[in-house]
Amino acid sequence: LIVSQWIHNDYKYFLAINLIANIFSAVLLQISRGLGDNTSYAIGSFLSGAITVILNVIFIVVFKMGAYGMLTATLLGNLICALYIIIRKKIYKSIKLIALLVACLAIPSLAGAQVVKNMYFNVDWQINSPFSQDFSDKTSGWGAHAEAGYYVIPNFSVGAFISYHTNNKYIDRQTLPVSSTSAITSDQQHSIFQLPFGAAFRYNVAPESQFQPYAGVQLGASYSEMSTYMNVMKVYDRNWGFYVSPEIGMTMYFTPQKQIGLHVAAYYNYATNKGEVLSYSIDGLNNWGIRLGLAF
After folding, report:
1. How far apart are CA 253 and CA 210, in angstroms?
2. Strands 183-204 and 233-253
3. Which of 115, 250, 264, 272 stands the most exposed, by the fewest C-beta atoms within 10 Å?
């Protein structure tokens, strides 16, 4: 593991498991928030914090478990938070998506421990800017991206990715016809939530260097929710489409051992998703943006 140089071996695998659980619960919380359910986001965050504090007292003070007690309490807090969001948002219906997310989050611990060599893993913050539609076209930083790959030859890798993003746009009060005999007058909060996942391919220009420029492409499926909020009412359309995203980027490792570094990338993506909400319609999703994060 990356931390094995600084952390005693007794804890390194437990720390890796905690890291995976923390990322998993954080992604699920942001999915809930991206879908506009701030109540579930708040309750999940409270459960994670409260359970961690209570179990810390029990494991450390009562059972004298020391560092293992602290790590166990943190792990259970994150897992209960994740379980709450999965049940509350009925994410358990998307078993394949959950399996892909868990697999992607588990890869860095394997790569860092060198159980599988010639791998890379990126965890990024994502800034996304939609264009070619005016339903929700404001640039937003509410997104994240995770990607892992295996170099089948020194310059070329095959892997998997998953990301999410939410873009919002406020619409002033107006009257919208909903049928030939009725209309709605209200202001609106437009939102487009996107969750693409699939295969990732990358060509690394300088695989032996600490500074590795590359070009890549991602192919897969894209789930999206196009929604508008009017006071207490929400109207939405959920849909699926095909997803493609070329990107160029750079990985900059801190040391010659290339265990951890910075990752930056610029991307464009297109998805074939189509949706209709009230009098609005979308035929295809176009976005461009940048990613900034850590490379393992």
Report:
1. 5
2. unpaired
3. 115
Distance of CA 28 to the CA centre of its chain: 8
Quick check: helix, strand or coil at residue 260? coil
- For 117, residues 6+ apart whose C-beta sits below 8 A from its C-beta are none
Interatomic CA distance for residues 279 and 131, integer angstroms: 19
How many residues in total does the chain contain?
Answer: 296
CB 218 within 8 A of CB 247: yes
Per DSSP bridges, beta strands 211-230 and 143-153 are unpaired
Alpha carbon 94 to its chain's center: 15
Q: Which amino acid is at 140?
A: S
Distances (CA, A) of 107 to 39, 150, 159, 196, 232: 31, 10, 11, 19, 41
Q: What is the 3-state secondary structure (H, E, C) of 107-143?
A: HHHHHHCCCCCCEEEEEEEEEEEEECCCCCCCCECCE
